[in-house]
Amino acid sequence: MKKIFTAAAMFITALTSFAQDLTQVITEKPDGKEYVLYGKTSGCTEFWGQMFPYELDGSATSAVFAEDGTVYLYNPISGYNAKTWIKGKLDPENNIVTFTLPQTIEKEEILDENGTAYTDYIIGYKMSYSEELSTYLVTPADQELQYTWDGKELKMLDDQFIGIASPDGSWHGIGDKAQAYNVMEDKTVAPKDENNVISYMMKYNTKENIEATQPIFVKVEGEDVYVKGMSKSVSGAWIKGKLNGENVTFAGKQYLGIDTDMASHNYFMPLDKDTPKESVTLSFNTTDMTMTTSELLTINYGKNTVKTLEYFSEPMFFPWEDPKQAPAAPVIKECNPENGDYSSFTFSLPMKTEDGIYLDAQKLYYNIYYDDELFTFTTSPYATFDKDMTDVPYDYTDQDYFITKAGNDRIIYTFKKGFKKLGVQCFYLDGENKLKSKMAEWSNPTGIENVAAEDGTVTWTDISGRAVNKPANGIFIKTVKNTDGTTTVSKHVFK
Hints:
This protein has one helix spanning about 1-15; strands at about 35-45, 50-65, 70-75, 85-90, 95-100, 105-110, 115-130, 135-140, 145-150, 155, 160-165, 170-185, 200-205, 210-220, 225-230, 240-245, 245-250, 255-260, 265-270, 275, 280-285, 290, 295-300, 310-320, 330-340, 340-350, 365-370, 375, 390-395, 405, 410-415, 420-430, 435, 440-445, 455-460, 465-470, 475-480, 485-495. By secondary structure, the protein is mainly β. It is globular and about 70 Å long. Residues about 1-15 and about 445-455 have low confidence and may be disordered.
């Protein structure tokens, strides 16, 4: 409860210090003329007391200009996807847009350690760097963030910094020091219509050299070859190639659209190692209609620098028809029914039928059973889940908290302990029909849980292996020396 009172007091102080209503956040797009913008930005993040600079080319945002001169800017900090707007004013004589800060860019109802709900506010402030304290601080006397606007570019004036902080001004460790947003001019491509579209499967190797697949669609219009579905991040995006005999050539840096999760403009980009290529040519087999290349294809954040979001090495495109069959059974590789505060297990999840036919991974799910009872990841205590989840999608990961994805392998941590039997079953979703695999099962060979006692020798490290005195907010590894001479290693999530 002390935490709530402290936060409330800080918030009241902030309210009395500035004229703006910091309880409000703009989540809906305002009325006015919208300009979709392509951003080149730079800023920094703070982690464990160290500053890490970043530069982004291709950040996606928008500016809305209302008739009364009010200006709204979406995602005012390029490295923080708040999906909200701040409000400013245009001086038409000087072509200066001024955003008077602080303004709230995010608020969230969360629970404290006692389960009591309170509202957490994330505030956008103009800040300056303190050499003495080696961090950014709010500058109360100067909260006017200014940009130039010439109808084509919205550019932050020099020597400014916008960061996010608590209501009391405590910096959250991320902010922009330079922003140049240009009106977006690149256009997406698409066939004239989607009649006679052919279903294909793309088989490729991931960055970790693990085989993967995903369904795509191909449409041929004369010499033009269109491919849809390479990018999962921009749904429905097409790329366009040119057919020439037994080859199809695709130009590089084709615009795909906006990735709303990354707040980025995404592009199709073939690479030669880390260097963008002007084009890539795929061999086209007129007999079986396959397209192949030994090159590397990627989906990239922006078009001027290499920042790979999706990776396809040595892809092969082949016609594919959904078999509408059950997948092969998963394989449980390892199970630890007692792992500190958790149990953990690793299993392999197939993408094929028992006959070896590829399946659409987006229709694949799996279920977990403890002692023959169906298990559900609930939002409490599994706080990384936005909703309760029983049917887990093939590609799902909660950023490596409770589910870690490694190729076709899944590493699962749960709070279930002392069970005698573990089961995993996957299924292929055909409409509302679940085509279920055989059950994979593990049984405790002894029925004896780990009862080794701790002798008080406990060490903590973060996921990078650095020693930590007191873990807080994140994933940490606990190593315990037991009285029987054994060592227990467990993963813990602190929120």
